[in-house]
Amino acid sequence: MSQQLFSYISRNIGYISFCMIRPQDSAKKMINETAGELAFRRIRGDLISGALPPGSKIKLEQARDRYSVSVSTLREILSRLTTENLVVAEGQRGFEVSPASQRELLELADVRILLECHAIGLSFAAGDLDWEARLVSAHHKLSAVERSLLGGDASRTLEWVRYDWEFHQAMVSACNSATLMATLSSVFDRFLRYHLLAQSFRGQPVVDDHKRLFELAMNRDLAGACAMLTKHVQNGADHVLKSGRIP
Fold first, then answer.
1. Higher per-residue confidence, 165 vs 35
2. Torsion region of 58: left, alpha or beta (phi above 0 gives left; psi -120 to 50 gives alpha)
3. Residue 86: which CATH number?
4. What is the residue-averaged pLDDT of the chain?
5. In this predicted model, which residue has the larger pLDDT, 34 or 83?
6. What is the rounded CA–CA span in Å between residue 24 and residue 178?
7. Together in a domain, 175 and 82
8. If you write DSSP's letter for every residue of 131-188 in order, what string do you get?
């Protein structure tokens, strides 16, 4: 199922990128999205999915036709994406997709654990009944999709990517820090990039991790939740490394 599942993601990552609306993105902003903003979302999605392979040159003329924006707009978008280390600027030679490496994967895992555990602590302290309701809803959706995936229904893969993000976002949604949320969101997506490059789904262990994280969050067990999150992220990184697809 793994190859089929991740192939499905790669073909539809643009839709995933559109669906994974961050808390700071209002409905009006999404509806009124400009061509440049839409192109940014599509390019970023292609970078995360591996549709634009690590280390490959980004040819502006071809990209102009693919994303339906001007070369000057493309340069602005690609320059913006260098700040997330998804793209590397080569001076006069243009841009290339950032390479993937085992070192960066492990660094992203460490940073994600640091940021998400801090955000979880703030969220557990401030979370109210509405926060609990968001968490219950997010886990219900995620667990339902995961049961379908484990049963072999790869057609729900898009929902899985979306609901995995929404579950982790729900846990930290009461942290009351837009800066922390935005930074964590970027790190989460860059970590996801490695899972998509590896084309490997951990299956039942991921489902078990999410269930345990949900239980610990509902009990506001900070030490337990951070320990579980650390295990969850580190096991994910180890699984990617064992795929043999990351140099």
1. 165
2. beta
3. 1.10.10.10
4. 87
5. 83
6. 8
7. no
8. HHHHHHHHHHHHHHHHHHHHTT-GGGHHHHHHHHHHHHHHHHTTS--HHHHHHHHHHH
Residues 150 and 197: their CA atoms lie apart, in Å, by 20
In this prediction, residue 136 carries a pLDDT of 98
Maximum C-alpha span of the chain: 55
* Structural domain containing residue 55: 2-97
In the numeric block, which tokens belong to residue 159? 């929902």
Q: Tokens at residue 16, please?
A: 């995933």
Q: Tell me the C-alpha distance between 243 and 103, whole Å.
A: 15
Domain edge (last residue) among 36, 63, 97: 97
Q: Are residues 211 and 146 in the same domain?
A: yes
Number of Cβ within 10 Å of residue 154's Cβ equals 19
138 and 226 in a single domain? The answer is yes
Q: What is the pLDDT of residues 177-216, one digit of tens each?
A: 999 999 999 999 999 999 888 876 678 999 999 999 999 9
d(CA 6, CA 199): 5
At residue 86, the 3 state secondary structure works out as coil
52-84 pLDDT, tens digit each: 999 999 999 999 999 999 999 999 999 999 999
Alpha-carbon distance of 33 to 230, in angstroms, equals 36
pLDDT one-digit tens code per residue, 91-103: 777 899 999 999 9
